[in-house]
Specification:
Blueprint: H1 3-15, H2 30-60, H3 67-104, H4 108-143, H5 148-162, H6 165-180, H7 185-206, E1 211-212, E2 215-216, H8 225-254, H9 270-308, H10 318-332, H11 334-352, H12 356-383, H13 385-392, H14 396-411, H15 413-428, H16 432-457, H17 461-486
Antiparallel strand pairs: 1-2
């Protein structure tokens, strides 16, 4: 027997005794724990995706001459929102991984301290990011070749959302703290309420004309949709986040099984802050890698829009088409994210309990379920492209472009599932450095070159860009599968 085989056999013999010792998952079988964790996260992510979908649907209902630039502006604003999520997730992942290990080892006192420090660090970091975005959105709009009202709407939407950073920090990081402790039901309920508030207020504050069963609903606040449309949409979202932050704080302060946040723990200290940062920093840079690459993609789309326009005026609608496809794609990876969250929480807790073999089993079972569900979404994308587009927009450019983009996306959903579930699983185990390395090499070595070559250089347009994006995504999924099979992630230190 080789030395490697001997180590693995010895590890497996020891691991079979590993049992999660505290928290909601204590004593549950792997399959039961996957179910307990995953379905609330799926509901939570559906609600979160609906916030973006509602914003785009309301923007698409604005008056003629406003709707198309509003969708382009909000489309870029959505990328800014993605960056905000990345910035906060760097802190959240570090706290979640450490809390999961502590709960699995039966040490909820350590988890409580890390939860408080993580929330304090997130508030400080999130406030800095909000200030940066306030000033950075202007050059961002210029980079993406937004002009006129599209640029105005992008700046307006982004700056209003930047004000919400303290609220979003509490809600997002608090949710990941709860996930690390094995509690996913309460964050899903909070997301549902955030979505309700966003839907109602975004409609009321935007002043759009809404119909129910063919009956025109009154504009209760008498708001001019032409002037208040995009600002009203953003304000509704901010208020929704404020409600979510308040509810998250109440849940944490009242406590869940074996974890209760004390106000005195919400502070920074050097040792715990560095421990969280050591795990979270690679995750932050991985997110920045993805964000920056896709920002370049938006610049490529701006080049295409300019090339297809008239007299130096960019052709409107391509950014909106891209973002509509991305919005529907977001729904497809919700099951993958849910299963990935379950995989990460279980991997961390089983490793904390001393059972690497059960951590491997949990990640793989989550991956199989994720591939099956996302494969079903792929079939829907390949067959229902036009009806899905019409739900958001009737613009001729969108109706021509989006169905082909969704078809391309549908082809690689199984690989997309691997790129999400396995990535989140080994990330939850604390293997964030390798996650960063795989993402960086794949994105800059393949994603950007392919998107530019097919979309811009060879003139295949938006369709060519999406062929490049989806090809890289399939390769990235295989790279994460290789890292999982290697097994080095199970020895990551947190």
């Amino acid at each position: 027997m080789s030395p490697v085989s001997a180590v693995i056999e010895a590890e497996i013999a020891l691991d079979e005794q590993g049992t999660i010792r505290s928290g909601k998952l204590a004593g549950l079988s792997i399959n039961r724990a996957i179910w307990v964790l995953s379905w609330p996260v799926l509901l939570q992510q559906v609600m979160a995706a609906c916030v973006g979908l509602v914003d785009k649907m309301v923007a698409g209902s604005l008056p003629d001459g406003v709707a198309t630039p509003a969708l382009d502006g909000i489309g870029i604003g959505a990328y800014v929102g993605w960056f905000i999520g990345i910035a906060l997730m760097g802190v959240g992942v570090g706290a979640q991984a450490i809390i999961a290990r502590a709960m699995g080892a039966g040490n909820p006192g350590e988890a409580q301290v890390v939860a408080g420090r993580g929330l304090a660090l997130g508030l400080a970091w999130g406030s800095i990011v909000g200030v940066v975005l306030w000033f950075a959105v202007v050059p961002l709009a210029e980079l993406c070749e937004l002009h006129g009202r599209s640029a105005e709407f992008c700046i307006q939407y982004t700056r209003i959302n930047a004000v919400a950073m303290p609220f979003l920090s509490v809600m997002s990081i608090g949710s990941m703290i709860l996930h690390g402790a094995g509690e996913t039901t309460k964050p899903s309920i909070i997301s549902a309420w955030v979505n309700v508030v966003n839907v109602v207020l975004s409609i009321l504050l935007s002043g759009v004309e809404m119909r129910l069963g063919g009956v025109r609903l009154p504009n209760l606040l008498g708001i001019d949709a032409t002037e208040w449309g995009v600002a009203g949409i953003a304000i509704g979202t901010v208020i929704g986040y404020a409600v979510g932050a308040w509810m998250t704080w109440r849940v944490l302060s009242r406590g869940v099984k074996d974890l209760r946040l004390e106000r005195r723990d919400v502070r920074l200290d050097r040792a715990t802050t560095w421990r969280i940062a050591r795990v979270g920093i690679p995750n932050f840079f991985e997110g920045v890698t993805l964000w920056a690459v896709n920002l370049f993609v938006m610049a490529f789309i701006g080049m295409i829009s300019l090339a297809e326009g008239n007299d130096g005026v960019p052709r409107q609608g391509l950014v909106g088409a891209h973002m509509i496809a991305v919005q529907w794609e977001a729904f497809s990876f919700l099951p993958g994210f849910a299963m990935g969250t379950a995989a990460g929480a279980l991997a961390g807790q089983f490793l904390g309990a001393g059972s690497a073999s059960k951590a491997r089993t949990a990640i793989w079972r989550c991956n199989v379920v994720g591939m099956a569900i996302m494969g079903g979404f792929g079939i829907a994308f390949m067959t229902l492209g036009e009806p899905l587009t019409r739900i958001i927009s009737e613009d001729p450019v969108h109706l021509r472009e989006v169905p082909s983009l969704l078809f391309i996306c549908g082809l690689i959903q199984i690989f997309f599932a691997m790129a999400m579930v396995i990535r989140n699983g080994i990330r939850g185990a604390g293997d964030t450095t390798w996650v960063l390395a795989i993402t960086f090499v794949s994105c800059y070595g393949l994603r950007l070159p392919l998107a530019w070559l097919l979309g811009v250089k060879l003139g295949k347009g938006l369709t060519g860009i999406w062929i490049g994006l989806c090809t890289e995504l399939a390769v990235r999924g295989l790279l994460f599968l290789a890292r999982f099979l290697h097994g080095g992630w199970a020895r990551a230190k947190v």
